[in-house]
Amino acid sequence: MPRTILPDARVTPRFAGICTFCRFPLLDAVPPENRPVDFALYGVPFDAGVTFRPGARFGPRAIREASQYIKPYSLEHDINIADVLSLADAGDSPISPFALKETLDTVADFALTLGEDTTRLFAVGGDHSIAYANMQATWFRHGQPAGGLPLIHVDSHLDTVDITGGEKWTHASPFRRAIESGFLNPRRMLSIGVKGPLNTARDLDFAREQGINVVTYEQWRDPSSGASGRIDAFLEQLGATPVYVTFDIDMVDPAFAPGTGTPSIGGFTSAEALGLLRRLGRAKTGSPRRGLNIIGADVVEVLPDRDVAGITSLLASHVIFEVLCLAALWKAGSHS
Fold first, then answer.
1. What would the pLDDT profile of 165-201 be if each residue is shown by its tens digit?
2. Is 19 exposed, middle or buried (0-12, 13-18, 19+ CB in 10 A)?
3. Which of 318, 272, 245, 335 is nearest to 63 (CA)?
4. E strands present in the chain
5. Secondary structure of 254-272 as H, E, C letters
6. How far apart are CA 262 and CA 268, in angstroms?
7. Order of strands, edge to edge, in the sheet holding 149-154?
8. Strand 243-248 to 149-154 pairing
9. Predicted confidence (pLDDT) per residue in 64-100, tens digit
């Protein structure tokens, strides 16, 4: 019996019915036999934290629509996420469009009401400021572990700026604020994909001082850089420890993902981005580990107004699927 009941696409067309993330059932409609829900996906239609182009508030709606074509079986991992995980769409968080910190507090409170105590929280943005709220809720839900959560951060930007335009809570600052708040452990944080020109060399200082492990896109591309070994070492050290995953769509080159507010030229292709996520689920040779013990996640910064033929929203949908595959692999391996 599958853990997630999906409409039969060969009976109910993908262009019909209520539009939910990946056609997952609404949270309130999950039957008792499929509870507790493993992951509650919810939208955060908020972009007051952007520093360049606004419009990511429409991201959750566009991603829901694009995700109607997501199918549950992974050819690469040989796993059906609907068989392993109970998944649900929990709707959208309430927000205050003109209030940054107030909205982040509201989102965190809303997230903590979703599902059961063991339900893991998957936020779909919205701009990257919302990662702070979902990480906070995840940290509380999982017992406020001392030292904070480990983080795998996939992005073109470090998002550790202190203040932008007099504001501390923008999409440029969520991880600095999370470190200060104690629910992110910077020495167990891996940032992959950072690239592009910076305002100043000092933009790197905070990450270096805090011990954040940064793998730039150019390092990832260069086999001689040692980046692959550093990623393997991080994953080996992580082991069974619960981890949070955050994915900013602007890590993908705008040739493949034009629908974003802070495009960064010279990045991952769509295939490389999906390949990176799949690689995170494969241990070094000789290790039995498959997947990651993901306790929370977010996918952010899709700006539909700048999208072309919905390709960025479609990519974001597949990123959601790949992250859920990592969680399904872990659960199927009886690690959790």
1. 999 999 999 999 999 999 999 999 999 999 999 999 9
2. middle
3. 318
4. 39-44, 73-74, 79-80, 87-92, 120-125, 149-154, 184-194, 213-216, 243-248, 294-300
5. CCCCCCCCCCCCCCECHHH
6. 15
7. 87-92, 39-44, 120-125, 294-300, 243-248, 149-154, 184-194, 213-216
8. parallel
9. 999 999 999 999 999 999 999 999 999 999 999 999 9
Nearest to 35 by CA among 79, 4, 80, 72: 4
| Predicted TM-score (pTM) of this structure | 0.96
Distance CA 253, CA 168 (A): 27
Domains and CATH numbers, the chain: 21-332 (3.40.800.10)
Q: Is 93 helix (H, G, I), strand (E, B) or coil?
A: coil
Token pair for residue 159? 């998002």
Nearest to 197 by CA among 278, 249, 242, 263: 263
